[in-house]
Amino acid sequence: WSRRAKYYVMRHFSQFIRPGYVRVKAMSGTSDVKTSAYISPDKKKVTLVLINVSDTNQGFTFSGSDYQIKSMHAYESVFGPVAKDKDACWIDRGEFKPDATLCLYPKSVMTITVSGIPAEE
Question: Is 62 helix (H, G, I), strand (E, B) or coil?
Fold first, then answer.
C-alpha cells in the first residue's frame, strides 16, 4: 500500500479536527484560497484548513480579534508537479508567529493549529 493524495487531504480534516469541534466563520482575502475553521469544545484550540486551488503561490497572514493566540503550527500537503513523490506529501512547517506571512504552494492544503483563549475570557 502507499499513501496517495486522498489520504493527505483527509488527514488535514481528521488529524486535528476532533469530535466535538464546531465549524466557525473563516474568510480568505482571495477566491484562490478556500478556508474553513473549527474550534474545540473548550475553545482553547482552533484548526484552520486552507486550500490553494490556484496554480500560483498564495500568501496567508492570520488575523483574528476574537482570540488571544498562544501558539500556531502549520502542516502542508502539496499536490501535483510540486509534490516530491509526484502524488502528494506531508510537510511539517513548524511553529510560527501570528503576524508571519506563510506561503501556500500551488494546489496545496495547509492545516494551521492555533492554541489560545477567546478574547472575552
Answer: coil
Q: Which amino acid is at 88?
A: A
Beta pairing class for 88-95 and 101-104: unpaired
The Cβ of residue 36 has, within 10 Å, a number of other Cβ atoms equal to 17
Q: Where are the alpha helices (DSSP H) in the chain?
A: 5-14
Convert the pLDDT of each residue in 31-79 to its tens digit: 999 999 999 999 999 999 999 999 999 988 877 667 788 889 999 887 7
Which strands sit side by side in the sheet containing 108-118, from one edge to the other?
A: 22-24, 33-39, 45-52, 108-118, 67-79, 88-95
Dihedral, CA of residue 80, residue 86, residue 82 and residue 84, to nearest 10: 150
Q: What's the pTM value of the predicted model, to 2 decimals?
A: 0.84
